[in-house]
Amino acid sequence: MTGLTLTTERERPFDPPDTYARLREEGSVHRMRYADGHEGWLVTGYAAARAILADPRFSNRPELAHSPLAARAELAREVRAQEFKVPPGFFLRTDAPEHTRYRKLLTGQFTVRRMKALEARILEITEARLDEMEAAGGPIDLVDAFALPIPSLVICELLGVPYEERAAFQEDTKIMVRLDVQADDALAAIGRVFAYLYGLISRKREHPGDDLLGGLVEGGELTDDELAGVAFLLLVAGHETTANMLGLGTYALLADPAQLEALRDDPSLMDNAVEELLRHLSIIHVGPVRSALEDVEIDGQLIKKGESVTLHLPVINRDPARFPGGDRLDITRPASGHLGFGHGIHQCLGQQLARSEMRIGFAALLRRFPGLRLAVPADEVPLRTDMGIYGVHRLPVTW
To answer: Which pLDDT score is estimated for 371?
Structure first.
């Protein structure tokens, strides 16, 4: 279907556009013309997506990729024209062996064991936010009061970023993830965050501290450029994604009284509920994108060297071949195996931290406010269809 145009608009707030779900019924890999005219592919099937993410013949390097969204394609063109390069250390957009080197340095910082050790502090941070909410009284914006501060505080403490200095990088992150951002504005925001991080690294060299960034500085294996690239990735990803899952996940539960009641009645379902919300909501609108380094056959389709392949995760994570009845939110469903955190060598490094934040956050919120409910009609909740990561701009609630 070469005329296919991808969109971030949705008919319903928790479901991907109907067009792509119908397309999945026709097959798992589809021919598609990208926004810049490139002839590539769209993947809507789970098995095909998992195979691509695990295959080293598909690259994650940005200079090889084409964006399926018109706004992002134009942004990429303008950024390339200004000769912007992905900074060293931003290992998300690298392949092995470069990716392997950075990943090995960081894997020990994000083990299940270490994340378990952080849970007491995560709970402390969460309870403090709930105390402030309770003191303020409703209605209140849950994004501003709860969903954004928790992961922001946690990642700041983990990295060694003073929380009182967060305002600037949070505003710049909002600029960077806007789909309609102009290249000059995006590059200026990136520049400001890197300038801040270089200053922070300089301070760490004088007073390292017992934190992840201080440890990397003391380790001496990375240059300042590499340290800034690693810190940039972890800082932005560490609060933006989990914040949107906390906000959108709460909205989804409040919009489904039966699932909310089931979780209240049986808190032991929380671990599974987190996995199901990750699967069902899939907050990456469109992507990830990979590029073939050689000819590869996937599910009977020959993907030629140089062609870009876009995985549509919101549709893939509802593939009935892997998740029967996947369009329905069901917190009792065995939802493990979803691709919300990716798969293969680029699987999310901070996934255990995100799980801990969501599990603790949702449980504490529902426990503290048993009467939690939307303070506006459900269709008035503003959705982040204009941002690179889906969620809600605001979630007015009361109790």
So the answer is: 96
